[in-house]
Structure to design on (315 residues):
């Protein structure tokens, strides 16, 4: 089945939904394909305090439901599914959803966001879902009253550690350097939490666990101390990896300009990519900020730029 649309939005975080709001109001009748995590990364966070309009804070999933509802009310055609193939070599752009449905789009807004980065250890793969996680909000509950480790020294790691400290007996924050990257406020919060111990200068080398038939369980995190060279096992039941994110842009490789880390390159002060009528918004295009509000703002810009581009063609 083939379908022609004026504006296709790929991705559904704050950038995608906001692009939907603006593109709908511009009569572009946008179709939005939600992707693997409808609502994006905010749906796996807890309380969000810094998104304007919620004076008392609100949960990430609730905020995303609000923005989604607004996009739907204004006319965005939101569909579940994954875009599995794109051809941006000529217009209309050809995008395939779930390997079968073809959408031919006059303009495309990419808002595919970013995803958690992993340590890359073989044992991490073995125990993922059996004690290794990248989302404390999703999986923290399984570790109530137990000991866990969080790997990383940025705001995400410290937020995860603070969240887990409320549920768990003890949390180890394992960081590869002697200085944290996180904001000072977040550092203070962690240093003031009695059941969090920071393990400095330590590089995770193995997730230690037990396997019994199909059952697997984490029993520790092996770390190498950079200063002493000593290898020790921190006895924990869960390991939360919080070492940053990677842009979700694999599908666009070779089709548009990406930087060496895979982030989409856009023109200065613009969401325009190197391909006419193709725009990018959100975390996949914004490595320095990567905030929900900056993603929403770039979604707005992308829709306005798509509208202006399509209008200019008709003049
Ligand atoms: P960051 O890139 O800020 O931090 C990643 C951390 O992981 C760093 O401490 C880094 O160490 C460590 N790390 C990276 N790779 C490895 C590895 N292979 N092994 C061990 N450790 C590793 O990512 P975040 O997700 O924490 O934050 C991203 C952005 O989002 C930041 O701008 C942050 O401020 C923001 N943010 C804001 C929040 C808020 O305002 N509420 C909440 C969460 C994030 P090193 O320091 O040595 O490089």
């Amino acid at each position: 089945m083939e379908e022609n649309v004026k504006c296709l939005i790929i991705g559904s975080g704050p950038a995608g939904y906001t692009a939907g709001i603006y593109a709908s109001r511009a009569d572009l009748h946008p179709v939005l394909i939600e992707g693997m995590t409808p609502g994006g990364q905010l749906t796996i966070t807890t309380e969000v305090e810094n998104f304007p309009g919620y004076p008392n804070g609100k949960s990430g999933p609730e905020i995303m439901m609000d923005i989604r509802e607004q996009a739907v009310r204004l006319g965005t055609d939101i569909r579940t599914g994954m875009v599995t193939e794109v051809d941006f070599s000529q217009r209309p752009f050809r995008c395939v959803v779930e390997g079968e449905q073809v959408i031919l789009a006059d303009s495309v807004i990419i808002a595919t966001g970013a995803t958690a980065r992993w340590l890359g250890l073989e044992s991490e793969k073995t125990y993922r879902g059996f004690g290794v996680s990248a989302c404390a909000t999703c999986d923290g509950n399984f570790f109530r009253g137990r000991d866990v480790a969080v790997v990383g020294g940025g705001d995400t790691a410290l937020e995860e550690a603070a969240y887990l400290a409320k549920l768990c007996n003890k949390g180890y924050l394992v960081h590869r350097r002697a200085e944290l990257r996180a904001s000072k406020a977040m550092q203070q919060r962690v240093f003031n939490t009695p059941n969090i111990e920071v393990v400095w200068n330590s590089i995770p080398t193995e997730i230690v666990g037990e396997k019994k038939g199909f059952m697997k369980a984490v029993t520790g995190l092996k770390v190498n101390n950079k200063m002493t060279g000593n290898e020790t096992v921190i006895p924990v039941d869960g390991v939360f990896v919080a070492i940053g994110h990677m842009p979700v842009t694999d599908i666009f490789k070779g089709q548009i300009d990406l930087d060496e880390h895979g982030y989409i390159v856009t023109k200065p002060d613009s969401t325009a990519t190197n391909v006419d009528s193709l725009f990018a918004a959100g975390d996949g295009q914004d490595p320095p900020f990567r905030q929900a509000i900056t993603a929403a703002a770039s979604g707005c810009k992308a829709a306005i730029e798509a509208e202006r581009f399509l209008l200019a063609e008709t003049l």
About this structure: Residues 50, 119, 151-157, 159, 176-177, 181, 243-245, 290 surround NDP (CB under 6 Å). The two ends are 31 Å apart (CA to CA).
